Amino acid sequence: MNxxxxxxxxxxTDRPDVVESSDVVGKGRFQIETSVDYQRDKSAGVETRMxxxxxxxxxxxxENFELRVETDGRVRERTEVLGVSDTQKGWADTAIGFKWRMxxxxxxxxxxxxxxxIHADLNSGSQQFRGRGVRPSARVVFEWDLPNDMSxxxxxxxxxxxxxxxxxRFTAGILAAVxxxxxxxxxxxxxxxxxxxxxxxxxxxTIATFDLGAAYLLTKHTQVxxxxxxxxxxxxPDFGITAGLSVKF
Length: 249
What we know:
Strand content: over 45%
Order of helices and strands: EEEEEEEEEEEEEEE
Number of strands: 15
Number of domains: 1
Oligomer: single chain
CATH architecture: Beta Barrel
Structural class: mainly beta
């Protein structure tokens, strides 16, 4: 890994890919990662377009532990059926949690960096976008630094959710893998396959995307990024795009 991207040296973000970084922000450091996101889907004659403003706040408690607050922010959803459209606006739910960096990686020995993320999504958003109850999740990230300034990240996880209509509880899986490449000390690109939900069809099925993106360092502690998502099955949104800004203080 190029030193400018390393934890403690410069900014390391959890966006724009789905796989989180195993790094934390460092003791006494605060980091904000914010963005705009557009998603489009057309299925069974229903076309849905959604704009959100995903934002993550990270506060370093120690060199290996951080507190986190995350939300999709402001939501605007437009649905069109047989030429008749409806638009809803509001706020998404908020999640609180923490990340623990369990192990540092070592390229020479092949030892991965390992980070644990424990979150709880709260039913705090606007009525039309609010989930049912508290939904806990656990994810673990494995990160390997590879030769030629490349990296590999794998993130399995579980989330306890509820059906928004019936309130029935169910457990969904999470699995994502990302391959990254640092082109120079400012630009990083990546390709990723991400299943953000693996569930039975009655609970929404498996939501899986193929993602491509890039991040650019404006300064040592400021990053901009962009990424695109392409749905891999009929249960997944057809297309999505995001652009973000992250700052470390």
